[in-house]
# Entry
Amino acid sequence: RSSQPFWYGRPRRCLRAEGAAISACMAGTAQAVAMDSLLQDATRVPGKGRRLEAHQAAQRKVEACRRSGDRVGEAKALAEFGLACVRLNKQDEATAALDDSLAISREVADEAAQAAAQIGLARLQDRRGDAFGFARTALAAHALAMQAGDAALVAASCDSVVDACLKTGRPSDAARSAKNALKLLRKVGGPDLVAGIERRLIQACLRGGDEEGALHAAKRACARMHQAEDAEGEASMLRLAAALHLRAGRAELALRAAQEALTLLRARRASGAASDEGQEAELRLLIDEILGLREAAAEGAPAVFDALAAAALAAEGPVLRMRRLPAEPGDGETGGVKWSQTLGRMRLTYVLGDGVSEESLSVQASAYHMQVMLDAKKIAPLCGALAGKVLLRRSRWKVVHEDVKHRRGGADVSTRRATLVLQLAKQEHKAWPCLWHPAKGEMAHPMARGRFSWTVDMHEEASMQEAEEATLMQLPSGGGTEDAIAGGAGFTFAPDDLCVAVDASQTESRISVSVHFDAEALAVAQQSVLLEDLFAADVGED
# Structure
């Protein structure tokens, strides 16, 4: 038996149980068919093949219930069949099945079956574009589900109500329905159902501008997941809380929440359990940005916090915004130099000590080498051959000062500790295995090795290129944020300058979008723009 019907979409384990359910019914066990079969979850899978299988299996359930004389089971099976038709856009067939389901459920006076039929009719109205009809029917289904006390139907109907209210511009009504559903689900519902409606409540609060309400819901969800020892869910809620604190200008609370979330995920990975590496990478980037933007806010630029928080909150709504591309390894430390990376950027931090100013520093780099000097003396941990190629015109550095208290001579002494922050833009769109190129005996760095030239002209061209790549140049100071590396907000290339074709393909579990570029045009673009700034995606539910 599934505790969650397919229109809610968690979990998706239908086809393993469908055969057993039908066999039990054919043997005369009518109760098996009256249950919410795991079959129902498959209709939430995007692949058309799975939807067709679910449609056929639901049809067999209807026939089996009719043979066994189970009217309640028939009503529920018709609701499943109608919803499977909705997913396949067979609207006439869906209308007939759902109307029959509603008539039978009223005849047998079964509120749960009526709620199931109403949920199906609501989704059908949504497919037809009738937003207000969708809202009316979804609210009626939710009321019936609450009266029946069926946790799965309460969650499913609440899901429909939230969708309908958000589509008709009533986020406060969506939040109210989600709160009412949670009161019941916390008593009789499973953790998956509660977690799903908690997220819908947070989404409704965010859509309505009630960020404090969203923060309160996130805190309650975090406490519940902590008791249930759901480390990954707890980390997700902490990340949301960090974004909300950052949005409100509470940088210290945001930093604490983000660091705690990252600690939870690392502990989970260290214990051998599966962990979301993408979420770890996003948290590392969020922490780095909070540390950098905290200094910027102290210097009079608090508006940046709002922009970053908006980007972080975007993933909690109906659309997932892909703007950064995580790399593995995501971070590390070498000789006191802490670093973190994405596929397009490498961020370095190094504590310089007390009383160090930008004027006393010199930061130089070539395409593959870096050298940092303090008062004309090299800082050894920051000098050497890099593991990859650097795009100099998009690289920046700055010194961040932080007040630190020391205990000296029995008294507290305050000093200004300086930390060097470097943002290196990568020439090649790939992960670096480490920060520095590993030396192998007397072998030179791959970029420093000579190239074989067939002609005099090729030799002269190669010599000029090698000299240019090996020459140390002074990196500009200031900035250090992602905007500095991105090089401004203006467009540099038109889409048809670079892109020659776009195609898409899908399997049952994956959608692939391929963007084809003109190789020569892309090589020109990469001299001034990071690929990470070219690639972006917004992903939402259909």
